[in-house]
Write a structure and sequence with these properties.
CATH superfamily of the largest domain: P-loop containing nucleotide triphosphate hydrolases
Largest sheet: 10 strands, mixed
Radius of gyration: 44 Å
Helix content: 25-40%
Shape: rod-shaped
Mean pLDDT: 83
Number of helices: 23
Length: about 700
């Protein structure tokens, strides 16, 4: 090797070693400084004759280039963590120049070219081939200059430059990020942030809102997971951000991965995050966005990969100390688990685990209920329906519909009657209001009903002067009871095509002899509605017993205004009503094994016999105010639901029990009668059956 080749080969070796072994991918400003210093040492080692002007000019130009690049690299290091946007961009430009013009490939190629000019210019062929290969292969001038221009342009271009908003100061486990906001711009909830975290390649957070102060405004963000396929895209972006700083992503950058992130796709329905003390049955969540949150609405969160629905029961305000003397006030919602929606079976399945703390919570959007003939009602403002799981068990295990006047109890009962008729369960309504005869006229054998009522009326009135030595035979009670039984036997016969019969005890004047006759007269008393109810109930049980035991419902007794038909012992209108209520209760208690059950409807829970009410395994609880009723219902529904009864809207109910398609108590919006009939009722077909 000659001395004139020393510089060329040493430069080539430095280029190869630096490019392939030390910094094969990118050159940091610190690395660029080391290469530039080495290049300057090499340049100063050249012995250039003073009489060659162009040799000196070329040498001085290379020295100036290396010194300028040293200044650029040092500036990049000094200003890389600057909060000033201009200085930060200058640092970014310095990093780009260092990566390209300060790389060993470029710096040592310059040294090689200078060595070629200085020592090989006397050999044109040698200068051409070696120089051409050095310039085109090593320096790649077109690619390098184009890359430098493009990357500097990207630094200043608003859409590409990092839009710094602050500094990450804390990470509240799990998944909450606290950011000290240090820019004047307004960051709205839902903005997507990119965090250059020193402990991870990057983090993505969704802004929840402001969270107090600490030398500046604090932002709170919810960290989200990004699928692996987007990591390379985000790493390119995070490389432009100083370590520990946070930038806001543009919509164009978010669009790349938004379609795969549930929170971003559904931000419009986001209302809060899961709060401490949540259990498998109760969800507590911090309300961040109000968005029509109200009692009865459904919210959704994740348990693993499962979407679990909860129904809002209540809310309260809370306050926490977040830092030093700063406090954070917020509203906390309480919701009860409904379950996981099974679309195939159109019902809810229970979930047996809890959601992750700080997991996002979404309000289910308002949707028009779909037409579903099986639905008894819907969760408010959704199309999630609740149905009667088993109408047979609704009857045999008894059902109560409770609530004040005018909230829709009778309409619900009439709907249930229609459903029972549709599956060929005989229904006997004892109704003091005459509403059932009007609403369900299409299901009645009107001619037969009128004849029977007329006949029973005549029998009842005729007993007023029927005095007998045997008191039990006096009056018309015995004859009236026998005739009731005859009519019920005919109605309950399999060959009878009708499934509805209605009695109004107030239509009948039935007499009972109270004393031994004296001087051809005796004390008489008319039967109360409670006593007539006993006659009908006991006759129905006797007929059912003759037909033997069964697991299926055969006949349902509907007690409308049950507080007047089966009153509690301390609410009776006459002394004989106590015995009559006990007789009716015995019939209901014995009836289940023979396919007999009841639906009772009342506005006065406290005034209905608890002997029957306690046997009701299905409850529709509507608006009520009395403490006795709420205390009684709390045993069925739980105190949380019972306390909500006074605030229930009209035609809303808390539905729970054996016949419900949902295992937990649920607050539902009952069907409107017109919608139900439009979907469910086929009058002519029912009549023909």
């Amino acid at each position: 090797m000659t001395s004139k080749g020393l510089w060329f080969y040493s430069g080539a070796a430095a280029l190869i070693l630096g490019s392939l072994l030390i910094t094969p991918f990118f050159t940091s400003p610190a690395n660029a400084i080391s290469y530039l210093v080495a290049a300057l040492i090499a340049i100063f080692a050249f012995d250039v004759p003073d009489n060659y002007f162009y040799d000196a000019l070329l040498r001085q130009s290379i020295i100036v280039f290396c010194c300028l690049m040293l200044v650029v690299s040092i500036s990049s290091i000094v200003f890389k963590d600057s909060k000033n946007r201009l200085l930060h961009n200058i640092a970014e430009i310095g990093r780009v120049l260092a990566d390209n013009l300060g790389s060993p490939r470029f710096v040592y190629a310059v040294v090689i070219i200078y060595a070629l000019w200085e020592y090989h210019r006397g050999s044109p062929m040698e200068l051409f081939f070696v120089g051409f290969s050095g310039i085109v292969i090593a320096i790649q001038p077109i690619e390098t200059i184009g890359n430098v221009i493009q990357r500097i342009h990207d630094v200043w271009r608003p859409s590409a430059a990092p839009n710094l908003v602050g500094l990450l100061i804390a990470h509240q486990m799990p998944d909450l990020l606290l950011i000290r906001e240090e820019s004047a711009q307004i960051i709205k909830p839902g903005a997507c942030l990119l965090v250059a975290d020193e402990h991870a390649p990057f983090k993505i957070g969704i802004v929840l809102g402001n969270f107090g102060r600490d030398e500046g405004v604090l932002l709170r963000a919810l960290e989200i997971s990004i699928p692996d396929k987007y990591h390379s895209h985000l790493k390119e972006l995070v490389n432009q951000i100083p370590e520990g700083f946070v930038s806001i992503l543009s919509q164009t950058e978010i669009d790349v991965f938004q379609g795969d992130i549930y929170l971003l796709k559904n931000w419009g329905s986001f209302v809060g995050i899961v709060a401490p003390e949540t259990t498998t049955e109760r969800l507590y969540f911090e309300i961040i966005e109000e968005k029509d949150v109200e009692q009865g609405r459904l919210v959704e969160t994740f348990v693993g990969q499962k979407h679990v629905l909860y129904q809002i029961l209540d809310g309260l305000t809370k306050e926490e100390i977040i830092q030093q003397k700063n406090t954070y006030g917020f509203a906390r919602g309480e919701a009860a688990q409904v379950g996981i929606w099974d679309e195939n079976n159109r019902k809810f399945r229970p979930c047996n685990w809890i959601p992750k703390l700080n997991a996002p919570v979404f309000l289910k959007s308002e949707e028009k209920p779909v037409d579903n003939a099986d639905a008894i009602g819907y969760f408010p403002s959704t199309n999630y329906e609740i149905s009667i799981k088993n109408l047979n068990e609704l009857v045999t295990h008894n059902t109560a519909i409770l609530g004040i006047l005018g909230v829709g109890k009778s309409m619900l009962a009439i709907e249930i009657v229609e459903r029972l008729i549709a599956i060929k369960i005989k229904v006997i309504c004892i109704d003091l209001t005459n509403q059932y005869a009007k609403e369900l006229a299409v299901f009645l054998d009107t001619k037969t009903e009128d004849e029977e009522i007329k006949k029973l009326g005549e029998i009842g009135r005729s007993g007023k002067a029927n005095y007998k030595q045997n008191v039990e035979e006096g009056g018309s009670k015995s004859l009236f009871a026998r005739q009731i039984k005859i009519y019920l036997e005919a109605f309950l016969a399999d060959e009878n095509p009708y499934y509805l019969k209605i009695f109004n005890p107030l239509q009948f004047e039935v007499w009972r002899q109270d004393s031994k006759p004296y001087n051809n007269t005796a004390s008489m008393a008319s039967l109360t509605p409670t006593e007539i109810t006993q006659i009908i109930s006991e006759a129905t049980l006797e007929i059912a017993q003759k037909r033997g035991m069964t697991d299926k419902a055969r006949v349902c007794l509907v007690y409308e205004e049950a507080h007047s038909l089966i009153p509690e012992w301390n609410s009776v209108a006459a002394e004989g009503d106590k015995a009559a209520t006990n007789g009716t209760a015995r019939a209901i208690l014995q009836g289940r094994k023979y396919g007999l059950g009841c639906v009772l409807i009342t506005q006065r829970t406290a005034n209905v016999t608890k002997t029957i009410l306690n046997q009701c395994n299905t409850i529709f609880a509507m608006r009520t105010f009395d403490d006795t009723g709420k205390e009684f219902l709390s045993n069925y529904l739980g105190s949380e639901y019972a306390s909500k009864l006074p605030s229930l809207k009209e035609r809303h109910a808390i539905f729970f029990g054996r016949a419900s398609s949902c295992e937990n108590p649920v607050m539902i919006r009952l069907n409107d009668q017109s919608d139900f009939r439009r979907v469910f009722r086929v009058s002519e077909d029912v009549k023909k059956e």
